[in-house]
Amino acid sequence: MERIPILRMGNLLLVTIQVDMHDKLALTLQDDLTAKIADLGAKGVLIDISSLEIVDSFIGRTLANIASMARVLDAQTVVVGMQPAVAITLVELGMSLPGIRTALNVESGMEYLQQTTSPDLSEEADVDRED
């Protein structure tokens, strides 16, 4: 069965979709990704869709579901690399992708996730100072 690889980078997960998404593959990704978030305690998920030329309503809804499930599991989701034609199609379909942050590329998406999922250094300093 075809699967999309999920890479771990510290407390973040990186998914790069390099094949055309069909409904069954999208559902498999949803199941695999939520299981991986729960197993590893990941705090962020970056999904690179730069290779996707078409995102239909089902794929868009599945991305929104992934973000909702990730949020319940205490992880943020960022989708990167959306092509202009895909953005236009999603707007025309009336899809808003709630709970999903977007970024232009992997670098800016990772930077956002690293900033928002890093532990607060001031809290760590307070813990270290306990006598």
What does the model show?
The chain is an alpha/beta fold. It has one domain (6-128): Transcription Regulator spoIIAA (2-Layer Sandwich), CATH 3.30.750.24. 48% of the residues lie in helices and 17% in strands. The protein has a five-stranded mixed sheet, sandwiched between helices. A hairpin with a 2-residue loop joins strand 1 and strand 2 (12-16). Helix 1 packs parallel to helix 2 (57-72). The radius of gyration is 16 Å and the shape is globular. The N and C termini lie far apart (56 Å).
State the fourth-level CATH superfamily: STAS domain
Strand content is 15-25%
Q: Total strand count, please?
A: 5
Tally of alpha and pi helices? 5
User: Helices and strands, in N-to-C order?
Assistant: EEHEHEHEHH
Mean pLDDT: 88
Uncertain residue ranges: 121-131
User: Any idea how many domains?
Assistant: 1
- Radius of gyration (Å): 16 Å
Outline the biggest β-sheet. 5 strands, mixed
Secondary-structure-based class equals alpha/beta
Helix content: 40-55%
Task: State the strand order across the main sheet.
Answer: 1-2-3-4-5
CATH T-level topology? Transcription Regulator spoIIAA
